[in-house]
Input
Amino acid sequence: MPPSARILIVEDSPLVVDAFRILFTEAGYEVDAAATVAEAIERGTTKRPDLMLLDISLPDGSGLEIMTALREHGSLPRATLAMTGHNDSKSRRICLDAGCVDVLIKPVPIGELLRQIERHLA
Output
């Protein structure tokens, strides 16, 4: 893991954010979070995370809008992992076509999540 790799958690559930924040901080990552598309775009452009953990369904739109906006600002993270409750090939394809490196189905097993993060930040 690179020193102080930054992870942006884009998730509207405070409980999930708190759990991920504890997990990732204990693993040695710097962590920031956003609960809406607008917050994620602001944090993504100003904080420039190395990896984004992206919930696709947010209160103010699709998480994939964030990918488009960050790409336009030239601040797309090295890797984005999509999280969705939709376990179908169409949803997966849409996320991958948007630039996500992988799609994780909720609820995401913690071990798998950490392995994916470590792999993409190596």
